[in-house]
Amino acid sequence: xxxxxxxxxxxxxxxxxxxxxxxxxxxxxxxxxxxxxxxxxxxxxxxxxxxxxxxxxxxxxxxxxxxxxxxxxxxxxxxxxxxxxxxxxxxxxxxxxxxxxxxxxxxxxxxxxxxxxxxxxxxxxxxxxxxxxxxxxxxxxxxxxxxxx
Length: 149
Description:
By secondary structure, the protein is mainly β. It has helices spanning 87-92, 94-99, 131-134, and strands spanning 50-61, 70-76, 79-85, 102-112, 115-125.
C-alpha cells in the first residue's frame, strides 16, 4: 500500500536518486506531479504505484464492448503510454479526454500479460503548452539558432 502523498518527497524520475536536501522517509520515491515519468521508464515503478505521464494524444478508442471504458494512447519523446479511462473518470474529465491534443495523466500502474497501463485518476489538458513550440522566439524564450534578440 502506498503512503500519504504528503509523506513522499518530490523525486527525480530515476530510481534511487534523491535531492540532497530531501528528508529521508519511507515509502515509494516515484515522481509526483508536476514531474512526469517518461514512457521508456514505465517499467521502473512497481505495480500499483501512482505515476504521472504526459504526451501527445495519438489514439482514442471507445469500443462498444468495453462498457464505457476509453483507451487513450499518449506519445512522448521516448515511446507510447497506454491509458485506461473508466467511465466515472471520463465523466469528470470529459472535455480533456475528448478535445485534448496533449494530456497529463495521473494514475496507478497496472501490468497484465506483459502490457503496462496507467489507470487514470486525474486528466489535465496541457495542449496550450504546444503553442510554446511555435512561438517565434522558440521554447523557453530562446531565439532560434543563429538569431540574436
